[in-house]
Amino acid sequence: MFGLGIIKGLGITLKHFVNTFIDDLKYFPSSTRSAEAFARRQGPQGAGLFTVEYPEVKLQPPENFRFIPFLVTDYDVPKADPNFDRAQWLEQNRCTSCGICAKVCPPQCIWIVRTNDPKTGKPIPQPSEFYIDTDICMNCGYCAEFCPFDAIKMDHDFELADYEREVAHVHDLDRLLKPVSYYASIRPTWYAKEEEARRAAEEEKRRKEEERQRQAAEREAKAKQEAEATAKAAAATQDGGEPQAEAKPQRRSPEEIKAQREAMLARKRQRADETGAETTAAPAAESDGSAAQAETSPAAPAEMVEAATKIETATTATAVPSQPDDLTIIEGIGPKISRMLQSSGITTYAQLAAAEVSWLRQLLEENNLARLANPTTWPEQARLAADGKWAELKTLQDQLQGGRRRT
Amino acid sequence: MVTTLEGETVVDLEPVLGYLHRNHEKIGERNTWIMNMPFTDRLDYFNSMQNNLGYALTIEKLAGLEVPERAEYIRVIMAELNRVFSHVSLLGFLMNDLGALATPLFYAFEARERVLDLFEEASGSRMMCNYMRFGGIARDVSDDWLKRAETVTDTLSKSIDEMDGLMTGNEIVLSRSKGVGYLSADELISHGVTGPLLRAAGVKYDIRKVEPYSIYDRFDFEIPTLPDSDVFSRFYQRILEARESIKILRQAFKGIKDTQPGDILGGKGGYIFRMPAGEAYARIEHSKGELGYYVVSNGSDNPWRYRVRSPSFINLNALADMCKGGKVADAIIILGAIDIVLGEVDR
Q1: Helix (H) or strand (E) holding A133
Q2: What φ, ψ does residue B162 adopt, rounded to 5°?
Q3: What is the pLDDT, as a whole number, of residue A251?
Q4: Which residues, 6+ apart, have CB-to-CB distance to B125 below 8 Å?
Q5: Tens digit of pLDDT for each residue in A334-373?
Q6: ipTM of predicted complex
C-alpha cells in the first residue's frame, strides 16, 4: 500500500516524541535540572530529550579536554588573597623558557622572551615574557604534550567570549599563569601521575647524589694519596713533580661539574622555598614586579658568591653594633630584607647609610630578593634616619614609590 | 556550482572550487612531520580520526615504524566509530537536502554526539582529535572508556536501524531518489571515484580488503554492494556499510581485551622525527573513499613534498556527469549523496 513506509517512519518519530515525555515524568518535577536525569540522557544509552539547555545546564568537560594552554606556577595563593605576592607568583612559574612548546607549535602562536642576567648576560631559566596568540592557537595540545617540565598545560575554560578582539586574545604571562591547585582540580589523575613521577625522579636523583658524593670522597682520598706520593717523589728528585700535582685537582670531571651545578640548583630551590614561606615581604615592590624582573636576576652565579663573601666578612669586621635599629622604617625594606641586612652586619641606620648601593644590590641578588626591592635610596633614607631627621624622611618617603624615586 | 539550465533540466554543470582553500599542502611542507598531524584534522572535519590514521600510516611506512597491538586496535575502533557516525550523519544531511527538514538530521546528530563524547574523552577534543602519533596513539583509553564505547556501539546499531526504518521505506524518499543521478561503474572508475559511491555501483572495491592496512585483515566483515548506482543505492549503501562497521567494532572490542594496557606507542615518540630520504604513499578506506597521503622526504625535519589525495575532491569530478539531463532539484541531492566535506575538497 502506498504510504505505508511514511506511516512507519512517522511511527518512529512518534516513539521519540512519547519517550521524551515518559522520561520527563520519571524525573518530575526537576526533569531538566536533576543530575541523575541529566546523566541518563547524556549517557551512552541515553533516552529522552538529548538537548542541553546551555547557559543554565553545562556539560562537564572530560579530564582530557583541551582548550587554550596555560602556564602552571607552584605559588599557590589566589590572586584575590591579600597576601598574594606577584614576584613569587612569577618566580615559581615552572617554565624555564626552553622553547620546546614554541618550536613544536604547529601554527607557531607562542612567543617567549628569555630572561638574561643583566650583569653576566647569561640566560636565567625564567621567561621574562610569554605570549600565546589564542586567535591562532589550534588547541592541538602539543605544547602540553612535549613540555619536559609540566609547565604548560591545556585548560578547560572554554567560555572566553569578549567584546574585544585585538589585545585581549593575546594572552600574556599574567593571563597565562595559573596556580598548581587549579591544574590539580581540572586534571586530578594527570596531576597525581606527574607528582608521582616527580617524586620517583627526586628519589632517584637523591640516591645518585649520595652515590656520587661517596665516589667523590673516595676519589679525593685517592688524589690526596697520589699528591702525597708525587710530593714525596718531587722532594726526592727536586724537579718536574710539582706542576703535575697542581694540574690534577684543577681539572674537574664532567660528573663533578654536574654535581656542583645540581647542588647550586638545590640551594636555589631551597632559597625559593624560604621566600615562598615569607609572604609579607616588601608589599610595595609588588607593583613593580615585572619591571624588576626584567632587570634583575634570581640566581647568583658561583663566582659572585665568592666575591661577595669577601666583602661581607670585611663589613662584619668593621661593624660594631651598639643598638640595633628598626630597619623596616626605610621604605623598601621589609622584615625579610631587614633580617638579611642584620645577618650581614648591618644593624643600624648609620651602617646602612655608609653602605654602597652596588653592594646592597649584590647582597639582594645573592639572597634571591633582588626582585622585591630596589636599594638605590636606602643609604639616603638611612642617613636621614641616623641623623634623626624624621620629618624629612617622611617627606622623602612620600615622594618614593616602593623605595625608589618615581620617574 | 555553475549550472546551465534549459527550463528545469540541467544541461551543463561545473563545480567552482577554491573558496575554502588554505594552502594545506604548502603549509605541510613548512611544518615539521609531526606538526602536520593536527592540520590533517582540518581536512575532513567529520573524520578527523581517519585523517590522522592515514597520515600516521604514511609516515610509519616511510620511517618503518612498528605499531603496538593495542594501538592498532584502538586505531581501528576510532576509525570505525568515525565511519559509522559519518555515514549516519550523511543520511541526515541527505534527508535535509530532500526536504525532510531537521528530524532525521537531529536523530543522526544524537548518535554522532555520543561518539564525539567518546572522542573527547579519549583525545581531548570532539572534532579536531589529533589523536594518532607516528608509531601509535597519543594516550591510552581506560577500561571504563572501552565499556562505554561498547554500549555506544549498541546504541549506534539501534540508531542505524532507526534511520533505516525512518527513511528507507518512505515513498517520498523512494520516488525522489530511485533512478536519480545514474552513472555507470565504468564512468565512475574513469573519474577516479572510490568509496561508497563506487560500491553502490556494484564494484566490490574496498581498501580494507584489497590492500589491508593496520589490522583489518583480522576482522570478519563483508563488503556490501548495490547494483543500481543511483542516489537511493548510495543512500542505502551507507546503512549497509555502517552495519559492517558495527560488526568490526564488536570484534575489536573483543580483541583489545588480550592486549597490554599502556602499550600504545612504538618507536621513540617525541617531537623530533628525522625521516630517511625517500617517498611513501599510504591509503586508507576513508568514509568517503580512498584517502591517500603522499610524502617525499629528503631526510630533513619537514616533508619536501606533501600531498593529500582527498576522496571528496576526486568524487566531486563525477558530479557534472551525474547531474546532466536531470532536474535542478535532483542536482542538490546528487551532490548530497556524493557526501563532500569542503574542508577536504579545497584543502
Answers
A1: strand A123-133
A2: -65, -45
A3: 53
A4: A65, A66, A139, A141, B119
A5: 777 777 787 777 878 888 888 888 788 777 777 777 766 7
A6: 0.79
- Report d(CA B181, CA B188) in Å as an integer: 12
Residue A5 has its nearest CB partner, among B31, B130, B170, at B170
**A45 chain-B contacts, CB cut-off 8 A:** 151, 154-155
Sign, Cα dihedral of A174, A176, A177, A183: positive
Nearest partner of B17 among B324, B315, B234, judged by Cα: B315
The model's pLDDT over B199-245, given as tens digits with 9 standing for 90+, comes to: 998 888 988 888 888 888 888 888 999 888 889 999 899 999 999 99
Distance CA A245, CA A227 (A): 6
Q: Cβ–Cβ of A62/B121 closer than 8 Å?
A: yes
Place of cell 594501538: B71
Could you tell me the pTM of the whole model? 0.69
Q: How far is CA B316 from CA A208, B120, B326, in A?
A: 64, 31, 17
Q: How would you classify the pairing of strands A67-73 and A177-179? A: parallel
Residues 6+ positions from A337 with CB-CB distance below 8 Å: A281, A282, A327, A364, A369, A372, A373
Set of cell numbers at residue A351: 651602617
CB contact under 8 A, A46 and B110: yes
Is A247 strand, coil or helix? Answer: helix
Chain B residue numbers touching A42 (CB-CB < 8 A) = 117
B29 touches chain A (CB under 8 A): no
Nearest Cβ partner of A6 from B114, B125, B171?
B171
Q: What is the DSSP letter of A337?
A: H
Q: Considering only CB atoms, which chain B residues are within 8 Å of A44?
A: 114, 148-149, 151-152, 155
Structure confidence by residue, pLDDT tens digits, B100-158: 777 888 888 888 888 898 898 888 888 888 898 888 888 888 888 888 888 889 888 98
